[in-house]
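Task: encode each sequence below as structure tokens.

Item 1
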Amino acid sequence: MPESFGNTEHMLEPGVICDGCNNYFARKVEKPILDSLYFKERRFNAVVPNKRGHVVPLDGFHLESGTRIQVYADPGGGISVGAHPDADEARLIKTLLGQSKGTLIFPVATSPEERVLARFVGKIGIEVMASRLVQAGKSHEELVDEPALEELRNFVRRGGGPRQWSVARRQLYSPDTVFSDGDEHYVLLHEYELLLRPIDKANDLYACYISLVLFGEEFVLNMSGPALDGFEAWRASATD
């Protein structure tokens, strides 16, 4: 899980992913998600800093001065507005001093393209599986030779395989929901789990799904193949 999603605990041990692959994933799989307005907005609202310790600002527009602006969130509390680095700050200030009110306009965030999202969720799924193997005292190398994951590995690592890999989505709780554990109160930025759906219990055959929750929104991907056939019905019956 990227640190820019507030993750400081769930890290793979050194050597589980080679440096070359790690750099590739950071540039080609994680960056498009982190740079998307959809998740920038959610990180901003939750005041989650990036790896450099800064909360990424949101771009907007001050209507009366015709100036691009940026809104900054302070981890200590509070929001400030300033001119975009490429904008005319003097014009913005002059307009603000001459008016008692104004209008700020912000773009509407749309969801990342599904293929980009699927590669990211699939990457998390493989890493979660590797982590579980290490925790169980087994080698993560088992994943390298596992034929059931070959299609997903190729899709995540190279962008090969099917044009689309389905991702089921639903909002489980509001991003600002406060959870309690005794005297401790906290906001849950992310969580994940591996889900196993029985296909043929007699032969120990299961479909494996990664359930990733970011800011209260769940993303589910089938690690065994690009389709989600039967998943929704199975989940509904499992929760009845």
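Item 2
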Amino acid sequence: MSLTKGKIETVLFYAKRELKYEEGTNNDTKFGKWYGLNKQPWCAMFVSWVFYKAGLSKKIAASNSKGFASCDAGLKWFAAKNKLVPIGQAQPGDIAFFQFDTDAQPDHVGIVVKNRRGHLYCIEGNTTPNRKGSQSNGGGVYRKKRPYSVVMAVARPIKEKHERKRYSQNQICIASLCSNCRKRLGSQS
């Protein structure tokens, strides 16, 4: 099955429909309740919920049939499935993993809406509407413009039929990481 334009539009439709959704006290959300892990950081559960609503849960089933609740588990699963693409090739419907600190773990995740001039435009859950406050545990669903420098990796849940080029897992893993993350990973070996 390929991710047709209709499937991408369906993913984006459900993501956009949740814009300006705000959590209750202590990360209380419909996404956490649906996933079964309420009152936890919920950016990954938001992404999983959107793909579930679009009928694509199987394509992001990193932790269970609903998807993933941990950015780290999601990124590792997509890497193992050879679903990472270079950041510059991100397209609508892809899943972007973000790195806001200095460790080697992804901090946040969102759904790509547009890739333009060194930035990914995404819809993200559990972030803030602006640059103030926590970008990875902020309390709502908002559109965000993120520079490539904070993008750790991009996953393409379903490759379209016309995408024939194959990369080795090592090539794609290194190519899909931002330069800062490549440096950090290199310094840990």
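Check on item 2: The CA atoms of residues 14 and 50 lie 6 Å apart. The beta strands are 84-85, 95-98, 108-116, 119-127, 140-147, 151-155.
End of task.
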